Structures are given as C-alpha cells and as structure tokens.
C-alpha cells in the first residue's frame, strides 16, 4: 500500500479505537500528526537497506512494536491504544492485503499476506475507501476544521508531509528518469488516479503545516 493508504487507514482505525474503546476519549483528541507518521513508520526499513534490513521484515513485526510500545503503555495507559493501532495497521492490514510481510519475526521468517499488489484494482479501491472514510471522520469529529485553523500544533503536520515526499523521491529514484516515471504514471487510469489523490494529500498536509507556521509567526509578531 502507498503512503496515502497507510496514512488514511491509520487515521480511520485510530479514530475508531479512540471513539469505541471505553475510557480512551477522556484523554482528549488524538494528535493527528503523530497518527499519520506512525501509520507509515514501519516503512522506515526502505532507508535501512544498508544495515541489512530488508523491506517488510523486522519493522513489520508484531513483536518489535509490542516491545517498543511497552514503555508508552506504561506511561500513557489507554491513551496509547489508538497510536498503537495506527502503527500496527500498516502491516497487519495494509501490507498484509497488498503484499506479504514477515509479521511474526523473529519466531518465523515466513512472509504472510494476500499479495494483491500495489497499484492493483484492490489497492486503488482500498486506498480510495480509506481516503473517503478518513475525510468523513475528520469532518464528523471536527478535525478537518482544526487542521486548517491557525494553531501551532498543526506545524507538526510537516512530519507526515516530509515522509510522503521522501517516499515519492524513493520511488522516483528507482526509475531511469523523471520522464520515464511520468510516462508510467500516465500509462494507467488507476495509476493516474493514485497520483492525483497523492497530490491532494500533499496539498492538505502542506496547508495544515503552513497554518501551524502562521500561528508561530503571529505569536512572535
């Protein structure tokens, strides 16, 4: 799944955990930038090839994230649940459907998943559904208004924005030229649609980041 889908479903499932699990709501609203960046964090392995860490292996394991979240749960308790959901949905849902992941490392090196493939009709449908649901929940829970308002916390939307841009550069770098990559995107209506939705996400993150920056600047002025 592309970063668009991972971020969208991270928000959807984290919000459902926040809304439906008894006792979680009392901690206040979720910090959306953290939810979005956690949704793509397992793919940090794309930058760790030099350390011998292959994609969809160590960082896509249940054990790793359970261990990493032990101190988080210790200090935050139930408040940490939606953020844990945001990160594990990446491989337990998104990558499981689209590919095959080493979910049970180090106990097993077997890769499990449905393997529909990125860019397939299933992928586009799932990512589109995630985007629509995320937009609907953002409107329903009033997050969209907050993320477009002049608030300092919105500046941290720069983190998922940078993650999205880095992922785009990573994919482009595997093509001979930008022109070749562009022709590939335009070769399929599905791929073109995915590119457009990713541009929409970039614009959304950029606007929210700029609103956060405005809040900092208005404070100093």
Overview in brief:
It is built from 9 helices and no strands. By secondary structure, the protein is mainly alpha-helical.
Please tell me about this protein's structure:
This protein has one domain. The chain is mainly alpha-helical and about 220 residues long. The mean pLDDT is about 95. The protein is built from 9 helices and no strands. About 65% of the residues lie in helices and about 0% in strands. The protein is globular, with a radius of gyration of 18 Å. α1 packs across α5.
Total number of domains: 1
Strand segment tally: 0
- What is the number of helices? 9
Strand percent estimate: under 5%
Low-confidence stretches: none
Mean pLDDT: 93
Q: Categorize the overall geometry.
A: globular
Q: What Rg is obtained from the alpha carbons, in whole angstroms?
A: 18 Å
Biggest β-sheet, characterized?
none
The percent of residues in helical segments reads 55-70%
The sequence of SSEs as H and E is HHHHHHHHH
Amino-to-carboxy terminus distance: 43 Å
Assign the structural class, choosing from mainly alpha, mainly beta, alpha/beta, alpha+beta, or little secondary structure.
mainly alpha
């Amino acid at each position: 799944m592309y970063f668009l889908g991972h971020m969208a479903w991270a928000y959807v499932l984290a919000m459902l955990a926040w809304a439906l699990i008894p006792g979680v709501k009392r901690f206040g609203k979720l910090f959306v930038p953290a939810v979005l960046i956690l949704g793509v964090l397992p793919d940090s392995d794309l930058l760790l090839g030099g350390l011998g860490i292959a994609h969809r292996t160590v960082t896509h394991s249940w054990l790793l994230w359970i261990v990493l979240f032990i101190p988080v749960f210790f200090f935050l308790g139930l408040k940490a649940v939606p953020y844990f959901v945001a990160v594990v949905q990446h491989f337990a849902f998104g990558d499981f459907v689209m590919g095959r992941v080493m979910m049970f490392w180090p106990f097993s090196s077997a890769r499990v998943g449905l393997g529909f493939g990125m860019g397939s009709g299933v992928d586009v449908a799932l990512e589109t559904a995630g985007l629509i649901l995320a937009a609907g929940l953002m409107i329903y829970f009033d997050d969209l208004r907050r993320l477009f308002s002049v608030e300092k916390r919105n500046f941290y939307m720069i983190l998922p924005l940078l993650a999205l841009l880095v992922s785009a550069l990573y994919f482009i770098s595997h093509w001979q030229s930008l022109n070749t990559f562009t022709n590939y995107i335009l070769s399929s209506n599905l791929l073109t649609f995915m590119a457009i939705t990713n541009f929409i996400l970039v614009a959304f993150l950029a606007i929210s980041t700029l609103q956060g920056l405005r809040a900092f600047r208005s404070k100093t002025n």
